[in-house]
Amino acid sequence: MTPKPSFKHYLTGSALWLTYLIVGSMLVSSFVVYASTNSNSNQITSQYSKTIDYNNIESGSLFLKSEQGITHSLVTASDYNVDVNAMMARVVLTQSFTNTSPDWVEGIYVFPLTEGVAVDDMEMWIGERFIKAEIQERKQAKKTYEAAKKAGKKASLVEQERPNLFTTSVANIPPGESIKIKISYLQQVPLLANTFSLRLPLTITPRYIPQEYTEAKLEYEHHQTAQQIEQQTTPIDIKQGLGWSVNTFTVPDASRITPFQVSESLGQKAAISVNLNVGLPLSKVESEHHKINHSAVEQTHKISLDSSRVEMNRDFVLNWTIQESARPQAAYFKESKQGFDYGLFMITPPTAPQTNINIPKEMIYIIDTSGSMGGVAIEQAKLALDFAVKQLTPTDKFNIIEFNSTYTTLFNQSEVASKASVNRAINWISHLHANGGTEMVGALNAATGHSAASGFIRQIVFITDGSVGNEEQLFRIIKSKLYDSRLHTVGIGSAPNSHFMERAAELGRGSFNYIGDIGSVQQKMSELFNRIAQPMLTDITINWPSEQVELLPKKIPDLYATEPLIISARWPSNSLLNNSAKMTVSGEINQQLWLQDMPVNNAMTQSGIATWWARQKIKHLNYELYDTDEKNEKQGIINKITDIAISNRLLSKYTSFVAVEKTPSRTLADILKKRPVANAMPKGSTQKIPLAQTATNANVLFKVGLLMLLITGLCMLATRTRRQYQQLTLSNKSKKIKE
Fold it and tell me: Mean of the pLDDT values across residues 17-27?
């Protein structure tokens, strides 16, 4: 007689398929949750077709072909008209949205601007008519826009996602018609090594959204700051944007900063014209990546593209140099507004003679080898790192950290830059290649958290395209763990994330450097190392002739050689009536005192100085916001930012521009369809174009879950068949015994 299975045996036999059942159900459930939160992406996907109906194509129609199929494109063009006066540029960007489809559509376009610009105006143009936008608190502006959209009115909304990333939404564009959005903004033109540089970002490198429950969870478990804990408990916005990523705990707005992208040949086109009114003789005007036409009448220069329009697949960079004999050591501009005077000061400290004292350095190089660096970018980065390592002397120490989905160090700890260790590093660099994710947290933690060894100065050089969405998490690590090290960022590729690069360098008391072309690697890296090797201007203070002044930045950073000091100031107009009033800037360079006086009332008048001061004030309030955990204090700072932005008509994280036509255009019977406007992939990139269906591993989880459920079903069927067979066998034996 066959013994009856014990409960333990039954439990052991069932454990496997029970495990498969539970895990499989969880994986399938996770996909269902993903699918529900990503409904917008599915809506977009459903608009694709496999073929084009050539019989119904109208002139001017544009179709985009991708792995998902073929879809009508919302054609956009971007026109940049730039007027440069001294060190400020006024840019008017006109975005034209043309609907070539037979449907009423809503266009949504995520686009880059230069880091920290002051967007202070927006207009919506419908044919020859225009509607001037209102600045409203962001939530209210969104409500205004949604109500107009629902009522069938033409409307537009411009929002800030990051200080260098914005979204334009345009509702109710009729079939075959166009709507133009004019955005006006101010940007500072930086000066470095006697060269001014104007940058117009034209596209976005796809931003990596870190995986959840990896580094973020480890930080939580290791009792990091309460701010990091709060960040992880921030509720995810279930109203997903149209991006290829879903929102996460680490990046709650991930779906708004990951717009769809297409190959560079299918991207949009831009026209660019620049008027240079520098007021001083120039020795050189050149574009780093685009062919230009240049003409000059006296000291006014006009620059335009050699072709009428260019593909928006890489940043436009225009450089100009003032003749050496005319270079000013200081400049000062002023504007009076509503009882206050506003000033913008630029002072270039003298270059100190090189010292013969060679202080040993500990150099930590971080190189990004993630997938977004694929193509030309990784070759630029490897050349830059190879050049950097060859500049070391035997008195220096160094280490290299490379990262993608994980990080790896060349040495366990920094080693002396002997000939053998340098050769080993050069060989190691030559074998690097780009692929995988952009998990920066581990690499930054490995590079920071250490003080400089006695007798050494510690410098970190971070070579990356900065294409991440979790900038705030990374800024907190830099701020809390850098200690006495300096951090310099080197932007690589056709469209690096300048928000991350510039803010990281600012927090790291270092400098931001950009290499956009493989032919300029040696020149740019030489400039960086020459700059940081020279004595710095330190302990900078400003004595103002009155206490009634607000200076920005509040804390003056040390300056490297060839870097100018830029200061924004606001004071009551009646507080400095003496025309001879002056401020004094002092500092120490190469152990010597440096002083410079500058008259406060004797300045050229220039519009926009008050707006620029307000933008700097908002910038510093945002920094204060990151540094506090107390909810009431946070809300107080947000209220201040909102008030300043609205009173100065400025776009910010908490205010938006909205324009609405009074009369409805679309009847409620006509269906409105959403159309995201794709950005071009950066020129030279070999990174795979991100798609919503492959942006997460939800599909993989779904398939694995289904497989596990199938295995569970087969196990249950096999168990049931085996039992029936055993019972049948037992029954037959019993019959034979009875016979």
Answer: 64
